[in-house]
C-alpha cells in the first residue's frame, strides 16, 4: 500500500508508523487520518505484529488538525462529513498496543491522537496543548475528555481554556506520559518497549489492554469482575501452560498465542 502522508515500516514484530507532512508540522488532514486508520487496521490484522509505535518528527508529533483544510468548512459540511473524526477512533479501536512516541509539538488533534494511544513516551522537547480556544473553537476529538482523565480537572480546564502548552517534565509529573527520554533516542526507546511487549503472549497482551481500558468505561466492581473473567479465560490458552512451565523450568517461555 502506497501512502502519501505516513511512512510505514516493520521492525521484527513491531509496526512503526511515522506521520509525514513535514511542511505542515504533521497537521492532520483528512487524507492522513484515512491513511493512518488503514495502516493501523493492517497491523492489527497482521499475525506477525505484536505492537505498534506511532511517531512524528523531532519537531512535531502533530501540530493539530489541518487549519488550512478546516478553515472554510460550514457547520453543514463538518457535521455531514463527521469532519475529521469519522475515521478518528481507529487508534482507540486497535486491539494490539499502540505506543505514541511524541517529540516536539503534540497540539490539538495531535495531543488527542497521542492520548488515544495506549501510552505516551515523550522526548524531552515535547510540548502538549489544546490550543483550539485560540482559533475560536474547542477540542473535537477528546481533548476535554481524555486530557481530563489523564491530568485531572484543574490542569485540563486551564489548558483547554487558555491554550497553554505543557512541557515534558510537567507531562510526566501529571501522568500524561509514562516516561521522558532524550529526543535522539525516543524512537529507539519506543521500538525497544514495543519489542518487549511483542515477545509476550499476544492473547494476554490484548486481554490486558482491553481490561485496562475498561477502567475508563465502567465501575470499579464491574471492571474487577471483567478482569477476573479475562484472567480465568487465559487458563484456556497454551501460552498460560507454557509461561508457567517455563518459569518452573527456569527458561524463557516460547509463546505461540494459542
Ligand atoms: C495547518 C499548520 C498547522 C496546522 C503548523 N502549520 N500547524 N498548518 N494546520 N495545525 C504549518 C504552518 O502554517 C507553517 O506553514 C508550517 O506548518 C510551520 O509552522 P510555523 O507556525 O511556521 O512554525 P513555528 O513558528 O515553529 O510554530 C509552531 C507551532 C505553530 C507553535 C506549532 O505552527 C502553531 O501554533 N500551529 C497551530 C497549532 C494549533 O492551533 N493546533 C490546533 C489545531 S485545531 P507555512 O506554509 O506557513 O510554512 C485542532 C482541532 C482538532 O487540532 C479537532 C479534532 C481532530
- Please tell me the overall pLDDT: 96
Q: Give the C-level CATH assignment of the largest domain.
A: Alpha Beta
Query: What share of the residues does DSSP label as strand, in percent?
Result: 15-25%
The residue fraction in helices comes out at: 40-55%
Number of helices: 12
Provide the domain count: 2
Low-pLDDT sequence parts: none
Oligomeric state of the chains present here: single chain
The count of β-strands is 10
Which structural class fits the helix and strand makeup? alpha/beta
- Span between N and C termini? 29 Å
Mind telling me the C-alpha Rg? 19 Å
By CATH, the topology of the largest domain is 2-enoyl-CoA Hydratase, Chain A, domain 1
Order of helices and strands: EEHEEHHHEEHEEHHEHEHHHH
- In spatial order, strands of the major sheet run 1-2-3-5-7-10
Morphology: globular
Attached small molecules:
hexanoyl-coenzyme A
**CATH architecture field of the largest domain:** Alpha-Beta Complex
- CATH H-level superfamily title of the largest domain: 2-enoyl-CoA Hydratase, Chain A, domain 1
**Main β-sheet: number of strands, strand sense, barrel status?**
6 strands, mixed
InterPro entries: ClpP/crotonase-like_dom_sf, Enoyl-CoA_hyd/isom_CS, Enoyl-CoA_hydra/iso, Enoyl-CoA_hydra_C
Function: Could possibly oxidize fatty acids using specific components.
Keywords: Fatty acid metabolism, Lipid metabolism, Lyase
Catalytic activity: a (3S)-3-hydroxyacyl-CoA = a (2E)-enoyl-CoA + H2O; a 4-saturated-(3S)-3-hydroxyacyl-CoA = a (3E)-enoyl-CoA + H2O
Amino acid at each position: 500500500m502506497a501512502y502519501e502522508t505516513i511512512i510505514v515500516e516493520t521492525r521484527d514484530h513491531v509496526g512503526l508508523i511515522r506521520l509525514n507532512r513535514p511542511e505542515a508540522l504533521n497537521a492532520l488532514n483528512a487524507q492522513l487520518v484515512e491513511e493512518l486508520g488503514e495502516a493501523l487496521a493492517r497491523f492489527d490484522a497482521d499475525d506477525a505484529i505484536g505492537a505498534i509505535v506511532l511517531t512524528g518528527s523531532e519537531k512535531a508529533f502533530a501540530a493539530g488538525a489541518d487549519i488550512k483544510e478546516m478553515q472554510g468548512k460550514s457547520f453543514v459540511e463538518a457535521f455531514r462529513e463527521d469532519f475529521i473524526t469519522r475515521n478518528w477512533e481507529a487508534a482507540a479501536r486497535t486491539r494490539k498496543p499502540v505506543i505514541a512516541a511524541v517529540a516536539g509539538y503534540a497540539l490539538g488533534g495531535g495531543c488527542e491522537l497521542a492520548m488515544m494511544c495506549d501510552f505516551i513516551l515523550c522526548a524531552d522537547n515535547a510540548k502538549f496543548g489544546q490550543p483550539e480556544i485560540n482559533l475560536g473553537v474547542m477540542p473535537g476529538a477528546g481533548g476535554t475528555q481524555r486530557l481530563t482523565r489523564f491530568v485531572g480537572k484543574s490542569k485540563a480546564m486551564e489548558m483547554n481554556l487558555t491554550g497553554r502548552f505543557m512541557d515534558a517534565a510537567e507531562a510526566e509529573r501529571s501522568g500524561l506520559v509514562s516516561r521522558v527520554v532524550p529526543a535522539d533516542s525516543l524512537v529507539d526507546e519506543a521500538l525497544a518497549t514495543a519489542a518487549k511487549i511483542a515477545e509476550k503472549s499476544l492473547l494476554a497482551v490484548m486481554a490486558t489492554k482491553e481490561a485496562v481500558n475498561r477502567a475508563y468505561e465502567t465501575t470499579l466492581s464491574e471492571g474487577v469482575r471483567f478482569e477476573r473473567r479475562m484472567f480465568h479465560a487465559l487458563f484456556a490458552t497454551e501460552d498460560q501452560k507454557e509461561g508457567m512451565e517455563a518459569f518452573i523450568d527456569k527458561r524463557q517461555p516460547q509463546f505461540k498465542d494459542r
